[in-house]
What we know:
This protein has about 425 residues and is mostly helical. The protein is built from 18 helices and 3 strands. α5 (about 105-120) packs across α8 (about 160-190) and α11 crosses α18. The longest helix is centred in the middle third of the chain and has 31 residues, at about 160-190.
Amino acid sequence: MNGFISKMSDIAKSVHEISSEHYNTYDIKRGLRNSDGTGVLVGLTQIGDVRGYVWENGRKISKKGELFYREYELNTLIDKLESCGNSKFEGATFLLLFGRLPETNEFEEFLSLLSKYRTLPDGYTENMILKIPSKDIMNKLQRSTLVLYSHDENPEELSLENVLKQSLSLVARYPTIAAYGYQAKRHYFDNDSLWIHTPPENKGAAETILHLIRADKKYTKMEAEILDLSLLLHAEHGGGNNSTFATHVVSSSGTDTYSAMAAALGCLKGSKHGGANLKVKKMMDDLKSSCEDYSEESIRCYLKAILSKEAFDGKGLIYGMGHAVYTKTDPRAEILKREAQKLAIEKNSIDEYNLYLDVERIAKELFRELKGESFDIAANVDFYSGFVYDRLGIPEELYTPLFACARIVGWSAHRMEQLMSDTKIIRPAYQWVK
Length: 434
């Protein structure tokens, strides 16, 4: 069988590879992007907005990055949610789903509801998670999401009330499923001890995650604050990112909530999307093992080798640098960088933190040398999120699942917006070529 597949793979390659000339001939917007790098406009949204440049006299002008959740700019929103304590992520969740910030009594009721939803259905942990462990927690999240369909008495109903109920249950349960999935992976694949803690009552996602993944269930106030903030930063990023657009596409077909979220998870799992933070961590590990010291010259030589496809994974990418929209700064990365410094001081990891700063600075210099002094490139949120997770003692297997635990909020809001506002099935055209 393997011999046949090996023999036929070359034939398959020849019939599945389309020449770039055809794409140019038909002016195909590869990646749904225009020739100037901007995204092809395919829809409308009131949920979030990503800003990184402006157009003036036909020229793209770089600007400081901004991210809006509804009408609130990210930094303003964080200040507004100060009263939420270590549950700012839940405050942002309320805003994204209901269009305004919660009042105190509403927020307490909202946290209580999410707390009740965190507990998984009877028999689910044993049958879905422990009996069918996975080496990849994103795969576990995806399969577990689809199985929850079978535990829903009304999985197909598309009324807003029912979709909202389903969405909130998934938002609440993802931290539990991800944590339990990781514990099962540790036990069955790593031969480590197994512990399954009950989710704590009336705690936000950040404290729930730290409680569930640690043997002693303990964490510091700063650890909870920084993880909560990290989840908030990842909750929404406009309708055009890969996984959110997939949510729109799948939702437009009229399918159920569980299928739509499973499709989004499949997108987020990719190294070009949610898996990028793990790529940054592995790249930094490779740098440390490849360089004799962390001098400016050593770092510069290593990064040059990456760009020449002679180091790390050979793809010529400095992971964590650059973004499709942000040019001068990624506001999420700027916030996370500040928090990472606080964490580095608490964890006695300031030298490691400074190494990240050096890599970011030297990478920017190299790109300007290659593309011109006016070229703007910024570290994106993935660059510092891996460092933060590592200092928090969060295992690498959970880096991307944590992204999913946050972005499920944005997906849910966009799914409801699609169902309420644009009922036409998304069906773009493909040109047949010989």
